[in-house]
Amino acid sequence: MNIVVCIKQVPASSEVQIDPVTGVLIRDGFNTKMNPYDLYGIETALKIKEMTNAHISTITMGPPAAKEVLNESLWMGCDKATLLTDRKFAGADVVATAYALSQGIKSQGEYDLIVCGKQTTDGDTAQVGPEIAEYLGIPHIAYVDNIVEVKEKSIVVSVSMDNTTETWEINYPCLI
Known about the structure:
Structural class: alpha/beta
Shape: globular
Helix content: 25-40%
Strand order of the largest sheet: 5-4-1-6-10
Strand content: 25-35%
Number of helices: 4
């Protein structure tokens, strides 16, 4: 099984600075950390790796300093890490980010499962994961809170809704 986990370097503080000329968040690589929700994504992938001997790749889009979160993912037990970086990505919105990540994932070859954190703490849109799945033409499930079973051709997950918890099965390749 090949798993891809999307991760992001975010400001480690709520005191972020915006470039007054470009209107873009200043990402200088200082006072940053891995997006906390992405840590759950990595943990999920590592649990599946223990069950299936999966190969885990992480991918991020950002400035060269974002290599730090990729290194952190490797230290945690992921097998490969990819940085998509270009000055043209600066200020990318959700659509551009999802497109770039989807193309980065596609260029790496076959994958079974893509795992994304719930959202990022610097954007809070929770839209990049589902948009990646749409660009790749694969099914996706949001708000997964538990892996129930990992099967050969599908994964069974528990999903938290407002007032209920549902159990869904989704075939590979897919995104959760």
